[in-house]
Design a protein that fits this description.
Largest sheet: 5 strands, mixed
Pfam families: Integrase_H2C2 (PF17921), RVT_1 (PF00078), RVT_3 (PF13456)
Low-confidence stretches: 455-464, 624-629, 758-768
Structural class: alpha+beta
Number of helices: 33
Strand order of the largest sheet: 4-9-8-5-6
Radius of gyration: 46 Å
Distance between the termini: 91 Å
CATH architecture of the domain at 33-284: Roll
CATH class of the domain at 33-284: Alpha Beta
GO molecular function: nucleic acid binding; RNA-DNA hybrid ribonuclease activity
Helix content: 25-40%
Oligomer: single chain
């Protein structure tokens, strides 16, 4: 429903009839207001003040048809009984509709509906008809209604709007004459039917939408938006609005459509349209809906709480987590806690403060945030797919940048993805979706902010002040020699130890590694290293010491920046303070682990030694490696057909041309990168390795004329390369070129031209046809492989047999090898150019797969047998369809074809081809007859 959101003023269209008025916005300037009033008074005929002012849409333009399904029998509802008040209201309504011509009396109707009286909110009765049975018999009209989201987006951002509503819009369309009596209804006074389209019919909305789409076809989307009978005229600037209204009013006059003046508002800047607040600023939530949420009472039942959990909000699981906890005990043990009260109030505040939305501009990037939380781990891939489906117009028109720290792009591209993820990846490939990590805050900026706002005089609660008498811990006297002490501790499963390096003022270093015979934590080991280093420095007579460690905890505890809460840490800290008091000055600071690597290595060495014997470990310094370096040559690869796809899948880089980028995204949806190798998802096989054209020619050459090659045709050759797991963009074209260049394949040139060259041989009895067919194939392969070396056929026979075993047969759809052993053979080309199954080969998994194939081999053989039978039937049908049936009767005279066995050898090639005539004396079966010659002798064989 359309409704303005600002104050309106009424304007009488005719001063002699003040009750006939329209409403306009109060924010118009004086000049524009005067123009509006003049325009509306000049076009007052488009408004209807009663049903008599509605001429109706011409039936030549549109009329409503029911299209009742013949499978449904007509239903006549039994009349219902009402009280006297309802009967009186029903009589008045019927009289009014009869007067204006909306209804007429019906005679012998097939369908009959009851009248239902409903009390109106403003008082009085309204009559409806119960067309439930009739609606069931009518198929749904699939004419699409506009998407509300698209209408709202298209309306936002305009300076001036006008909201209009048709006067009893459905009743302005006439019924088709043949369907008029099907909408008959019963009253206490008689039977009536509608001449116009009534309310309550199943497809009435679709019919009306079809009408407005037809008459406002050029305006919808530019200056108008229409949703059934709700119409809106929009203008970017106020100066254009009256011109846009004039065009619409002209169309209303041409098609005799009338508006309801009480539901129209002209010249407003904002209003409610289809449940949203629309203005030039953007899109806002409906205040009525927000008020209903704010006034919502505290839920008391399980159903009320479940309605809260179903709200579609950002991070809904985090906001609704207390509600889920309240439902744990079931509907009879609901625990509504103070946490639930706070979450309920927070949810109302969040929903009640809906932000202002603005429609995206063309070419603008849209950001989609996906994340997981502590209370819920969402299905990020599903969330992205559902978002793409719900927001499909935005995904199609804009580049979507998905900001998430989860590896979604890798999930959609990894080979072990399930079928569902593969389907989702192809579905998202239609859109321009880019995955980017969430930008992190600048750590330095946060540190500077804290440093500037933290008072230097304030002391942290719980901080342990340094003991009195402790020497200066921050300033060293440069005139006195200073020793540098690096300390580190180590605690692991092998043992515990400490390492320290004491550097004297003259640069001499003393290395010390200690292994503990007792268990310590890492922090305790750090303190032990510090204490040992301080004792060593004291024994050397050091006055000032600079202590370096990579442990943040004990450094800040010694400087009193951190508090030592553990009893063990407190004891170690006291011991450290006692030793530090014996120095004139000291400095302790935290360094990077890389700057403390020497002491760290000593600590790890000490903790790894598992005996109690002290030792010295000599360290040899090698000037050069013990192995001879091997020269490496750089190989330069040129761009191939795979390069754009590979770069896009690995780095997300697209061409600058938008059309090329869009094509590349579509194309890349069926490709995947596994171990830095590009594979294509196939329809007949799982993954096909992508190779270059040069590699592809090697694959074709090996399959065509290699060890197991059978010199097959181009289409078969390409199909075999597919089935072996290889793909490149010019596969079929290269296969055609290779077959054309093959000398052995071109020897069949005469056969293709139907020139039969064969050796003459005497006829012989028919033997096993299948054996003959296989022998013919073997001979054909041997001839191609032997070339001129005809005597070497025994050596080439195994290769010919292997070519047959690994070739797919059209009759079975399988290779003979797979039907015998349950899996495909590894052909030589897969050794020269590795395929997917050789790349990812694992012995245990392969053995399990072979065992499973053997278990399923019977089913595979059964399916191949069924395909073979179907193939034989197709061949038989093809042959029979070209044979003209010819039958003979007993007594007919026929000629018999001369065969090589019956031909006279002295006659030569010019001898007769037919002999006879013969008389048919018996019919043995179809096309088989018993013959007798003119001499009266009967032939021995039919």
């Amino acid at each position: 429903m359309t409704q303005p959101a600002e104050d309106l003023e009424t304007v009488a269209l005719d001063e002699s009839q003040p009750d006939r008025y329209v409403r306009i916005g109060t924010m118009l300037n004086a000049t524009l207001r005067a123009e509006f009033i003049q325009f509306l008074r000049r076009n007052s005929e488009v408004f209807a003040w009663s049903y008599n002012d509605m001429p109706g849409i011409s039936p030549d333009i549109i009329s409503h048809k029911l299209s009742i399904s013949p499978a449904f029998k007509p239903i006549r509802q039994k009349p219902r009984s009402y009280d006297a008040e309802r009967y009186e209201a029903m009589k008045n309504e019927v009289d009014k509709l009869m007067t204006i011509g909306f209804i007429r009396e019906a005679v012998y109707p097939d369908w009959l509906a009851n009248s239902v009286m409903v009390w109106k909110a403003k008082g009085g009765w309204r009559m409806f008809q119960d067309y439930t049975d009739l609606n069931k018999a009518c198929p749904k009209d699939s004419f699409p209604l506009p998407r509300i989201d698209e209408l709202v987006d298209a309306t936002a951002g305009h300076e001036l709007l006008s909201f209009m509503d048709a006067y009893s819009g459905y009743n302005q369309i006439f019924m088709h004459p043949a369907d008029s009596e099907h909408k008959a209804f019963i009253t206490d006074k008689g039977l009536y039917c509608y001449n116009v389209m009534p309310f309550g019919l199943k497809n009435a909305g679709a019919t009306y939408q079809r009408l407005v789409n037809r008459i406002f076809a050029e305006q919808i989307g530019s200056t108008m938006e229409v949703y059934v009978d709700d119409m809106l005229v929009k203008s970017r600037t106020a100066d254009e609005h009256l011109a846009d209204l004039a065009i619409m009013f002209g169309i209303l006059k041409d098609y005799r459509m009338r508006l309801n003046p009480t539901k129209c508002a002209f010249g407003v800047s904002s209003g409610r349209f289809l449940g949203f607040m629309i203005s030039q600023r953007g899109i806002e939530a409906n205040p009525d809906k927000i008020k209903a949420i704010i006034d919502m009472e505290v839920p008391k039942t399980q159903k009320d709480i479940q309605s809260l959990t179903g709200r579609v909000t950002s991070r809904a699981t985090d906001k609704c987590a207390p509600f889920f906890k309240a439902l744990i005990g079931g509907k009879h043990h609901i625990e509504w806690t103070a946490e639930c009260d706070k979450a309920f109030q927070d949810l109302k505040d969040y929903i009640g403060k809906a932000p202002l939305l603005s429609k995206p501009l063309p070419g603008e990037f849209l950001f989609l945030y996906l994340s997981v939380s502590n209370t819920a781990v969402s299905s990020l891939a599903l969330a992205l797919v559902v978002s793409a489906r719900r927001l499909q117009p935005y995904f199609q028109a804009h580049t979507i940048v998905v900001l998430t720290n989860q590896p979604l792009r890798q999930v959609f591209q990894k080979p072990e993805t399930s079928g569902r993820l593969v389907k989702w990846a192809i579905e998202l490939g239609e859109f321009d979706v880019q995955f980017k990590p969430r930008p992190a805050e600048k750590g330095q900026a946060v540190a500077d902010f804290i440093a500037e706002l933290t008072p230097s005089e304030a002391s942290e609660p719980g901080k342990t002040p340094p003991p009195e008498g402790l020497p200066n811990g921050s300033r060293l006297d440069q005139s006195i020699p200073i020793c540098i002490l690096h300390v580190d501790g180590s605690a692991n499963q092998q043992g515990c130890g400490a390492g320290l390096v004491l550097t004297a003022p003259d640069g001499a270093k003393m290395e010390y590694a200690i292994r503990f015979s007792f268990r310590t934590s890492n922090n305790e080991a750090e303190y032990e290293a510090l204490l040992a280093g301080l004792r060593l420095a004291k024994s050397m007579g050091t006055k000032q010491v600079s202590i370096h460690s990579d442990s943040q905890l004990f450094v800040n505890q010694v400087t009193a920046d951190f508090a030592a809460k553990d009893a063990s840490m407190t004891a170690y800290l006291s011991s450290a303070h006692l030793l530090l008091q014996q120095f004139k000055a000291y400095e302790i600071r935290q360094v990077l682990r890389s700057e403390n690597s020497h002491a760290d290595a000593l600590a790890r060495l000490a903790s790894a030694i598992n005996d109690k014997i002290g030792r010295k470990v000599p360290v040899e310094i090698l000037a050069q490696p013990s192995t001879t370096s091997v020269g490496i040559c750089t190989i330069q690869y040129e761009d191939t057909w795979m390069s754009p796809i590979y770069i896009y899948l690995t780095n997300g880089t697209l061409p600058k041309d938008k059309s090329q980028a869009r094509k590349l995204r579509y194309r890349s949806a069926r490709y995947i990168v596994i171990n830095d190798i590009l594979y294509k998802r196939g329809y007949t096989t799982s993954y096909m390795k992508c190779v270059t054209e040069e590699q592809g020619k090697y694959v074709l050459r090996e399959i065509h004329s290699g060890v197991c090659g059978d010199h097959s045709g181009s289409r078969s050759l390409a199909h075999k390369a597919f089935r072996q797991g290889y793909y490149w963009s010019s596969m079929y074209r290269d296969a055609i070129a290779m077959v054309k260049k093959c000398d052995k394949c071109q020897r069949q040139f005469c056969t293709r031209l139907k020139i039969n060259l064969f050796f003459a041989s005497p006829a012989h009895p028919q033997s096993n046809g299948q054996v003959e067919a296989v022998n013919k194939i073997i001979k054909k392969l041997l001839k191609r492989q032997l070339n001129s070396a005809k005597g070497a056929w025994p050596e080439k026979l195994p290769e010919a047999l292997w070519a047959i075993r690994m070739s797919y047969r059209t009759s079975t759809g399988e290779t003979p090898f797979s039907l015998a052993f349950g899996s495909e053979v590894v052909v030589p080309v897969e050794i020269g150019e590795s395929s997917y199954r050789t790349e990812v080969f694992e012995p245990k998994a392969n053995e399990a797969a072979l065992a499973l194939s053997l278990d399923l081999i019977e089913e595979r053989r059964t399916a191949a047998n069924l395909r073979n039978e179907a193939y034989k039937q197709r061949v038989s049908w093809y042959y029979d369809s070209r044979v003209k049936p010819r039958s003979f009767r007993i007594g007919d005279w026929v000629m018999r074809k001369v065969s090589l066995a019956t031909k006279n050898p002295t006659e030569g090639i010019l001898g007769p081809s037919w002999e006879g005539p013969y008389e048919v004396i018996g019919i043995l079966r179809s096309s088989t007859y018993k013959l007798r010659g003119t001499d009266g002798k009967t032939l021995g064989h039919p």
